[in-house]
Design goal:
single chain, alpha/beta, eight-stranded parallel beta sheet, seven-stranded mixed beta sheet
Length: 499
């Protein structure tokens, strides 16, 4: 699953990044400092505070041979047992820390390192769990945590792809699908060269889970980049000040830095946005600088459009440049001044209307069941073949209904229908093929329909149209063509036009 849920909040693609402040050893042995870290994390914009639940005895043994000595890195020369004695968060604090987190309104969870830690955390009501990078291979621990059926966020560190796959399969084998994976460079501090955030993206695609970054680097570049690349979770060590000596302070963020990182992440999310083509609200005013068709010489009604009197130029108030070849050779419907943006209504036979025939029944059926058409119809349910067949036959035989197919050149692009309401009034309805929307065909078709109606039914003096209030495109078009809004309720807007 590409989304997990923690405390009613969805985490994954399409949702804001979940930002975790890792306390770790930064309390430096003080309960009050630990509480202050929670309060500061909330102030700085963290979504969650994370601690670790272990003791030196639950994570290792008190042994001082060479196997238990650390060589190189931040903790060079330390003995594992003594290091964990310095770094651990006393268990008797943890219920109190959880209560403080709840009081200030920030999520709280922990990393357990053995069964006893899981049992303890279950006892205080922790809602989800973190699995540390080095514990990813602890299959019994993974299985034990998975059986709680609570979300599990897992750092992957130096794990091979096969090891990650085994961990995920183990958790899923216990019926727990609430899994997220974090890319994590196991150096303290890490450098950007070792981040390999492309691996984070690959994990998401490969395992079908939300992904993110457990970031041990200095600064916020890696975290912000991870979010821009699709990361849904950021974990960062958090301290009140790096001058407060403890095993994790040297690679932890101070409050001002953390707050800046959160702001940068939220800005990166806004910049990343969504998949969107076309002009944004901010850009719409610039669409006028695109090219369109303009009359570049004065023309008389009936004069033929040629390469000399019509050009594709800036600005963008006229017909789309794609229409250039289509209008050449056609006649003008009116006198036109140089500098006039060309519209469909100015071009003779821009579109043509042909009475619907039996062989076009399937085409009309496809148009009628198009998703957006059904959504904007007063009856939104799909139309069955049988229902459509009966309706189409009745329509072609009707004396009070006229159905036309609109052609652009040789291509059918839409449908126009007139229903006689009285001797002097007709209701008009229309539809444009989804492939040809937004090209001006609807307006041209309605204008051509009005002209045709005045020829075939000169007694008609009024046209009406009914549309849904949410159909903004149709409402705008009808108003542009001179229809006036006469009535509106929650279900329908009635427009009328006097011919």
């Amino acid at each position: 699953m590409n989304v997990i849920e923690i405390g009613g909040r969805k985490i994954g693609a399409g949702h804001p990044a979940y930002i975790i402040a890792e306390m770790s050893a930064n309390h430096a042995g003080s309960l009050e400092r630990a509480k202050e870290i929670i309060r500061k994390a909330k102030e700085c914009g963290a979504d969650c505070i994370k601690i670790q639940t272990y003791t030196a005895d639950t994570i290792t043994i008190d042994c001082h041979n060479s196997y238990f000595q650390i060589e190189g890195g931040t903790w060079e020369g330390e003995n594992l047992y003594s290091l964990y004695n310095k770094a651990y968060t006393p268990w008797e604090w943890q219920a109190e820390l959880k209560a403080e987190a709840e009081r200030v309104g920030i999520d709280f969870f922990s990393t357990p390192f053995d069964f006893s830690a899981v049992d303890f955390l279950e006892g205080i009501g922790v809602g989800f769990y973190k699995i540390a990078s080095y514990e990813l291979r602890d299959i019994p621990l993974l299985r034990y945590v998975a059986r709680t059926k609570k979300p599990m966020i897992i750092s992957t560190g130096i794990a091979a792809c096969e090891e990650i796959a085994e961990a995920v399969e183990t958790i899923r084998g216990e019926g727990n699908e609430q899994i997220a994976l974090l890319r994590c460079a196991l150096a303290y501090p890490a450098i950007e060269d070792s981040m390999n955030l492309a691996t984070m993206q690959d994990m998401g695609a490969r395992f079908g889970v939300p992904v993110g970054l457990s970031d041990h680097s200095l600064g916020s570049l890696a975290a912000v980049t991870a979010v821009a690349m699709g990361g849904s979770i950021i974990e960062k060590h958090f301290c009140l000040g790096r001058d407060i000596e403890n095993p994790d302070s040297s690679f932890s963020m101070e409050p001002a830095e953390f707050a800046e990182m959160v702001r940068d992440i939220r800005q990166a999310e806004k910049a990343k946005g969504i998949v969107y083509y076309g002009a944004t609200e901010q850009e719409k005013e610039n669409t006028v600088f695109r090219k369109s068709l303009f009359v570049v010489k004065d023309m008389k009604r009936g004069e033929i459009f040629t390469k000399e009197n019509v050009r594709v130029i800036r600005p963008g108030y006229g017909l789309h440049p794609r229409e250039y070849e289509h209008i050449l050779g056609k006649r003008s419907e009116e006198d036109l001044e140089r500098g006039t943006p060309l519209s469909a209504s100015m071009v003779e036979n821009y579109v043509t209307l042909v009475s619907a025939k039996e062989e076009q029944e399937e085409l009309v059926f496809i148009w009628a069941n198009e998703e957006e058409t059904r959504k904007q119809s007063f009856s939104t349910e799909p139309i069955s073949n049988e229902t459509h067949h009966a309706w189409y036959g009745e329509t072609l035989a009707s004396d009070t209904r006229s159905l036309y197919i609109c052609y652009y050149g040789e291509t059918p692009v839409g449908l126009l229908r007139f229903d006689l309401l009285s001797d002097e009034e007709a209701e008009i309805s229309y539809q444009i093929d989804v492939r040809f929307r937004g090209r001006g065909y609807a307006g041209a078709m309605l204008s051509a329909g009005e002209a045709l109606l005045q020829e075939t039914g000169p007694q008609i003096k009024k046209l009406s149209a009914r549309v849904k209030p949410g159909n903004a495109a149709s409402c705008k078009l009808l108003q542009k063509l001179g229809y006036e809004e006469k009535k509106r309720d929650a279900n329908c807007v009635l427009y009328e036009k006097i011919l």
